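Example record

Each entry pairs one chain with its bound ligand, NAP.
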Amino acid sequence: MKNKTLVISGATRGIGKAIAERFAKEGINIAFTYNSNEEIANNLAKEWSEKYGIKAKAYKLNILEPETYRDLFKEIDEDFDRVDFFISNAIISGRAVVGGFGPFMRLKPKGLCNIYTATVSAFVVGAQEAAKRMEKIGGGSIISLSSTGNLVYTTNYAGHGANKAAVETMVKYAACELGHKGIRVNAVSGGPIDTDALKAFPNYEEVKAEVEKRSPLSRMGLPQDLAGITYFLCTDEASWITGQTFIVDGGTTFGCKE
Ligand SMILES: NC(=O)c1ccc[n+]([C@@H]2O[C@H](COP(=O)([O-])OP(=O)(O)OC[C@H]3O[C@@H](n4cnc5c(N)ncnc54)[C@H](OP(=O)(O)O)[C@@H]3O)[C@@H](O)[C@H]2O)c1
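Structure tokens for the complex follow.
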């Protein structure tokens, strides 16, 4: 895996940061994006380069403008000689999800469209650009983050849940059409993971208590809990795995505890 390159969106914090660091530890070069946290991103690039002896660089990206992925990949081409892996991880929150994050009767087209753009369209354009580079080196692995909020009712999550279902379907289509190029495409679907995104839920404490109750492992997920599976899916050990969604939920979807 050494000297290969991962491109990942939204690696300044939460799940993206844990995934990027997992890959960096293996000697993989990291091209990652930030949106608002430029200083944090540049500090992380410096830290990972020094600690793991890899090349790491941060680039600005707004997933509400997915077409800008094209210029982003051109910039990455200047700095990195190959793209082996692409992980579509970034997610919007705050004002951008108004009308998309909330109860069903308050959903509005603008907020829903923003979540579609950030979740599905951003995956599509990022994966297209990554696939063009992967084809040149004989293949690669593409992953979209998803969430079990499309399987388990989660308060206010209809907009996100519906778009996570959509991106999982898009993953399957991409897998079917890119397999002959040696490119595998999968989704990793997490149960509730303790990150800023979840802490922004108005009912965070309630969600946390419910997760601890439902999970046979009696705890919330941590960002690191999704890092191992994404790394595995990029190794040769996973060379016959494509078009799948992997659920990493601490047992919460089945809800095995009373
Ligand atoms: N947390 C959960 O419970 C959970 C569970 C399952 C799946 N997931 C999925 O895992 C992924 C990561 O979630 P997370 O909880 O780690 O999120 P998070 O902590 O909120 O981090 C979001 C990341 O996305 C970036 N970002 C925010 N707005 C952006 C924009 N407009 N354009 C580009 N990048 C933007 C942020 O960059 P800046 O810091 O620079 O703003 C940050 O790096 C998401 O796809 C999410 O749906 C989360």
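Residues 9-16, 34-37, 61-64, 89-93, 145, 147, 190, 192-193, 195-198 surround NAP (CB under 6 Å).
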